[in-house]
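Feature request disguised as a bug: please show the residue count (261) next to Phosphate transport system ATP-binding protein in the output. Example input:
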Amino acid sequence: MTQAQQTAVKHDAIYSVNQFNLWYGQDHALKDVTFDIPQNQVTAIIGPSGCGKSTFIKSLNRMVEMVPGIKMAGSINYKNKNIFDPKYQVEELRTDVGMVFQKPNPFPKSIYENIVYGPKIHGIKDKQTLDNIVEKSLKSAALWDEVKDRLHENAFGLSGGQQQRLCIARSLAIEPDVILMDEPTSALDPISTLKIEELVQSLKEDYSIVIVTHNMQQAARISDKTAFFLNGEVIEYDDTNQLFSNPSDQRTEDYITGRFG
Ligand SMILES: Nc1ncnc2c1ncn2[C@@H]1O[C@H](COP(=O)(O)OP(=O)(O)OP(=O)(O)O)[C@@H](O)[C@H]1O
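Example output, currently without the count:
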């Protein structure tokens, strides 16, 4: 690779993870994790239960810090700044990085109030501006047509799949650059899953997406890059097509062909 190409690749990374380690007490949950997460791409994190996928994705927005007794080493750079540097302004991550969880978790409020919650915290008060944010976010999350006539009804009245798209819309309302998704379809039926998968594909035009998934077909269908984690280590990180069609490590091959996990 030429110097110019190396620079181009570097520039393309929204996150650069370098020798990142994390311990829960004595439990070494992430070991020397090193790879770049590219901008405007979908990066899938796969691996068997307990391999550190959730710990890793929660490190990307510093949510992992809420767990008492953790220890970390190495760095995670976001837009070229180490997010664990004591001088780092964590507010940047809070506004830049949205998160969607395994189980849809709307607030017990109306659909409208769910979306405007974040923007209001960021000081937006003008009703027309908030109305526009609601419409734009719901359209981007492919939910607008289904809910435009019931915006002031409680979000709990939506189906599970609709609630998850509402949570995606809520994360879009703060105009993030990155969306982290921790098994966003594992609680959903196949049709809702398909809708979220299509949505993820369309969102990458405007956002960088990291998705943890147990479902290897899903990773193969929707991601550009895949990282295979095992016992806290990244065993292989590559273009998704390459990793699934021609893995370079026997353990990756064993996992993707269903020999364990
Ligand atoms: N809050 C915590 N306190 C202590 N140990 C934890 C905590 N969260 C996770 N761990 C441990 O860290 C390791 C990695 O867990 P993690 O949840 O990141 O894995 P995972 O790959 O997301 O698993 P799953 O697919 O089952 O959700 C496991 O050994 C787990 O027991």
